[in-house]
Amino acid sequence: MSRVLLVCPEPLGHQHPAGVGIRFLEIARALRREKHQVIVLSPDAGVIEGCEAGAVDAVSIRSSSLRSDVALVQGHIGNEYFAHATEIPTAVDLYDPYVIENLHYFKSHGGQVFTHDRQTLLRSMEMGDFFLCASESQRLFYLGMLLACGRLTPETFTQDSTLNTLITIVPFGVQPLAPTRPTDKSVCPTSHRLLFGGIYDWYEPRLAIDAVALARRTISDLTLTFTYHPNPLTTPQGKSAEALQYVASRSYGNFVNFQSWVPYAERGSFFDGFGAALITFRPSLETDLAMRTRIFDFLWAGLPIISSPAPGTDPILKQYDAGRTAAGNSPEELADAILEILTVPGLQLQISENARRWAEFHQWPVLLEPFLEFCRNPRTAPRREGIPLPDRASSRRPSLLSRFRRLSGMSTRTSS
């Protein structure tokens, strides 16, 4: 078995992990099940059972990498890792497209966020040996970047034309199934509660609030719950503040609730208090690339999902009939979907069962297999820190001979 170093960019000690933290927690558990020795470095030196823990700094990165056979790193912490770690086979987790997500911060934080994100991503792509992503659309996006970075070359293609040894899909998974949700409304009086969860700046909480306000004309006790983010100091809260202000200005506090983020180990019982989940956002490149963590948690819990349209999750909801998508993304359409799920006899229970059927086949140990195999047999890959560009003066104008050859080729193709 290998000695594996996990370098997590999010705090783990508070036991309230968000998406990236959950992913590292479950990766550590899967590695321990295979008897690997695991070191986890995080900003707060949070402990994961069975693993050695430490804080992220130059000394711990250096010493931990010297004692490890293989490593996994994600996000901005990669800058420190590649600056201080000894050279060992390293996987880079790209499941969270932060360089695209953080474009939403341009108006409030300026261009320096994008500059830093882009430099971080390029550095990780130049230095990593193996890359993980969460979907086919992400894989194509990152393959384009790997080509630009000089990592996708004729040599890598010749060795593996699928390029799965360079970058592979490791989706977000779920734990073993939670207990079956209550179905008797006499013992489940909270079935008209909707859960949104935490608010990131690429979400549209006002859209969800307006939809629930409309649906309340039919279901008078319908409520909507948001949760505060566990890492507010490192995660901008612009949209969250906007939602709080909107609720106050409309006097919606009687049906819109804000509460603390629930500990990861307790979220199953927390989910049982809701009848369905609601998530809203606008069309964007972030929406095209995202694989929304909460969607998978909601499916795991058997919560019917009402969602804005998104390429990454729409096929899941449709294939498994696990929820409803409002194609036009209007408050009226979302309200209609809410009313359908909560008022049509038997539909809520049927959708809940369908959601759990998806979860049954998307367990963490199965989805993590490509990374687990990398840990069993670590390997390095040729690294190229950029590629030389052609001389602009010489390439500004094609030669007469090259133009003639090109035109001749075009003529030949046209006549065939």
Overview of the structural elements:
The termini are far apart. The strands form 2 sheets. Strands 3-2-1-4-5-6-7 form a 7-stranded parallel β-sheet, with helices on both faces. The protein has a 6-stranded parallel β-sheet with strand order 10-9-8-11-12-13, with helices on both faces. Residues 184-189, 385-408 and 410-416 have low confidence and may be disordered. The protein folds into 2 domains: 3-171 and 364-376, 3-Layer(aba) Sandwich (Rossmann fold), CATH 3.40.50; 193-360, Glycogen Phosphorylase B (Rossmann fold), CATH 3.40.50. It has 20 helices and 13 strands. The chain has helices at residues 19-33, 58-66, 77-84, 98-101, 106-109, 112-127, 136-148, 154-159, 205-215, 238-250, 267-271, 285-289, 293-301, 314-320, 331-343, 347-360, 364-367, 369-376, 392-395, 400-415; strands at residues 3-7, 37-42, 52-55, 70-74, 90-93, 130-133, 167-169, 193-198, 223-227, 256-259, 276-279, 305-307, 323-325. Helix content is 44%, strand content 13%. The chain has 416 residues and is of the alpha/beta class. Helix 2 packs across helix 3.
What would you call the structural class?
alpha/beta
Give me the Rg, rounded.
24 Å
**What is the name of the CATH architecture of the largest domain?**
3-Layer(aba) Sandwich
Specify the number of helices: 20
What's the CATH class of the largest domain, please? Answer: Alpha Beta
Q: Reading side by side through the largest sheet, how are the strands ordered?
A: 3-2-1-4-5-6-7
- Oligomeric form: single chain
Uncertain stretches? 184-189, 385-408, 410-416
Query: Which topology of the largest domain does CATH recognise?
Result: Rossmann fold
What is the typical, i.e. mean, pLDDT?
88
Q: Between the first and last Cα atoms, what is the distance in angstroms?
A: 59 Å
